[in-house]
Amino acid sequence: MRSVFCLLSLVFALSFAAGAAELDKLLLTRAELWKMSGDTVMTNLPDTFQWMDAAKTRMRYNARESKTPLTLFGSRVVEAIFDIADGKISTLNVSVYNRGDAGDIEKKAFDAALDKVQEKLVAFVGKDIQPQSQNMSAGGSRLRSQAWRTETGDVVLCWSSSRTQSEFITVDFYPPGKAPKSLREGYKTSVGSDDLVERLKNDDDGSRYVMVPMVDQGAKGYCVAATVERILRYYGSNIDQHVIAKLAESDSTRGTSLNKIVDALEGNQAKLGIRFKQLYRYDDLESINDFKKLCNNYNSLARRTKEKKLELSDYTFVVDKMKYLDYGSLMKALNFDIFRQLREKDRRGSRAFFDEVHDSIDDGIPLCWSTFIFPAVDKSSSDFGMHMRIITGYNTKTGDIIYTDSWGAGHEKKVMKAEDAWGITVNLISLQPRNKTSR
């Protein structure tokens, strides 16, 4: 907790340390900013930003990960992302504060930070230009913004908080006339489902896939929020993971409840311009009896291969006469090869899963893919866990699954054997544009 408050004191400091990188030096070039390349940003703000993908379409700064502090109008920021299109800067998103990276703060500190940003933005755009208020309610959450439109660029300040929870303050910079007309328009998908097939890539090795914008969730437990942001950005939305985290009540440490993100997406389909559909759910481990059955079936196979048996009693404990299961420890103790064999017995479920993947990808539609994390399959982890990633394709020759994790550069296009992919699958969710053609 101490490290969180230390970071916050840095974020909201009115002065900044010597050697800080200043976004102001780029923003004060006004219209010239939109002629700059990403490499120009790297040159002017060295050791600050990192590319998020090999195609160099997005670059990111995060206060947790960079040794060089970054400032906007003299105050440190938590995160900043440049989007690059056709080799030139197309947008700049600056997170002045977000709960996921900076932790919780009191309403008084949040309001003071918001007032400070508003004051600086008025000075930046000119006192004669009046902002346009753009507010939106979604799933019980209130999102507020102000937009200034100038001859050299558009600026949108967006924030969300309640009496009990401060969420985020962001500032988006756009070329003149490019800012969304309203929050609703900006968050809503603009690409039509009929236009997505054209995005399919087919390589000589049999790989069929699409590429979705990269988002780096950073050290936050925001894999669900980042996954949804990436798919909606693929459909033309400019929503970010902090808005999604707000809608789904995400926790930066514990992550997002799958039930809550399902409720949030189902309840906001019209506002986000999507159609939500749960294609598959693995619900064989939802009761103590399910785990008894798992152990019995597991032990039958373990005897044949002389692997250690699972004793359910080793992973249960009693508190105040209530019996609890140490789910994570039990799953970590599993031999994944045996668990995968058990999953393969569900041939109907496996066939339906891969049929859904193939049909969706053939239509250019990526899928939200909730999985178990087994160290035997995911070398990036030494522990059992849960994760959400995106299925972006499959191999027409081998059947392998092509997927991406929201971890930045190097994770844009990854491949997993079909049997492993099925073995770790928990949920498969489709988010499709509501419109048939681009609006």
Quick tags:
439 residues, alpha+beta, nine-stranded antiparallel β-sheet, globular
Task: Please explain how this structure is put together.
The protein is of the alpha+beta class and 439 residues long. 32% of the residues lie in helices and 27% in strands. It has helices at 2-11, 24-27, 38-44, 99-102, 107-125, 183-187, 223-234, 241-248, 258-267, 269-272, 288-305, 327-333, 336-344, 347-362, 418-424; strands spanning 21-22, 50-51, 58-62, 70-72, 75-76, 79-85, 88-98, 132-133, 136-138, 141-149, 154-161, 166-174, 201-202, 207-209, 274-281, 316-319, 322-325, 367-373, 385-395, 401-404, 414-416, 425-433. Strands 2, 3, 6, 7, 8, 9, 10, 11 and 12 form a nine-stranded antiparallel β-sheet that branches. Strands 13, 14, 15, 18, 19, 20, 21 and 22 form an eight-stranded antiparallel β-sheet that branches. Strands 1-4-5 form a three-stranded mixed β-sheet. α7 packs across α8 (241-248). The longest helix is centred in the N-terminal third of the chain and has 19 residues, at 107-125. 39% of the residues are buried. Mean pLDDT is 91; it is low at 1-17.
